[in-house]
Amino acid sequence: MGKVISVINQKGGVGKTTIAFNLAKGLAKKGNTILAIDNDPQGNLTSAFIGSHQKPAADILNFYKNQAEIVIPQTIDNNLYLIGADIHLSKVSDSGIDVIFNLKEGLDRMKNRYDYVIIDCLPSFGYLNMAALKASDYVLVPTKPAPFSLEGLRDLFDSVEKAKKRFNPDLKIIGIVLNLVEGRKTIIGEEIEQVLRDKFGDLVFTTKISRATAIEESPSEQKSIVEYSPESKHADLFNQLVDELLERM
Ligand SMILES: Nc1ncnc2c1ncn2[C@@H]1O[C@H](COP(=O)(O)OP(=O)(O)O)[C@@H](O)[C@H]1O
Ligand SMILES: [Mg+2]
Questions:
Q1: What architecture (CATH level 2) is domain 3-248?
Q2: For site-directed labelling of 202, which of 55, 195, 235, 247 has its Cα 20 to 30 A away?
Q3: Rounded to the nearest whole angstrom, what is the distance from the C-alpha of residue 14 to the centroid of ligand 1?
Q4: Is 25 exposed, middle or buried (0-12, 13-18, 19+ CB in 10 A)?
Q5: Residue ranges with CB less than 5 Å from ion ligand 2
Q6: 212 lines ligand 1 (CB under 6 A)
Q7: Is the model's pLDDT at 81 over the cut of 80?
């Protein structure tokens, strides 16, 4: 009960939010009770769930302000809940060392009401991401098969190692998910995928997500790809991703 998974990579644009959103919806569709948390001041996960003109009813900022008692997750569906974020979250990131611990302390009060808690992280190394590493059981790492992604992963894995050593010994990397894989095979894409699989072995999910317009469009209608285009092969891939994640846990 209450397993916390952070979707994290200090690089932007690799699909953290897309994957966090679709996983939250997909795990809920399988009957799990899910709490989705937006830990990024850009608020993209929040917009995916409630649209870009709504203010979230529950704000992660209150965890960081040590006011967890007023955080009542917003109901999205009967087994899917959201704690959102907006630009005000950016003020937290340099407000002191407590920040790193506040998210976990807030979540500990409520996480056992859920099967899984999915945290969408921001692209940076900073206090907000350290807070997510402190609060998590698992990290899931989206990446895209592009030059420099390997160096990015090395830096991320270093941060995870440090987090384990200093403040969360039980943290586990559940895996690396290749996203934005080109439908038409490219030499560079295939080479990078091979290097990743050689270097990280079974840590790389078998399921990989292709680049597809429908995956990009669906969150703006508050729909997962499975809801938006259920018969598509992209929907199949996300169903497989959910299954593979559950197997790995
Ligand atoms: N598999 C995909 N196919 C097409 N577009 C994608 C895919 N994954 C992500 N995107 C798009 O790429 C951009 C960055 O994705 P996003 O999930 O916001 O990344 P991050 O949260 O890591 O910054 C967004 O416009 C998103 O819609
Ligand atoms: Mg994002």
A1: 3-Layer(aba) Sandwich (3.40)
A2: 235
A3: 6
A4: buried
A5: 16-17, 44
A6: yes
A7: yes
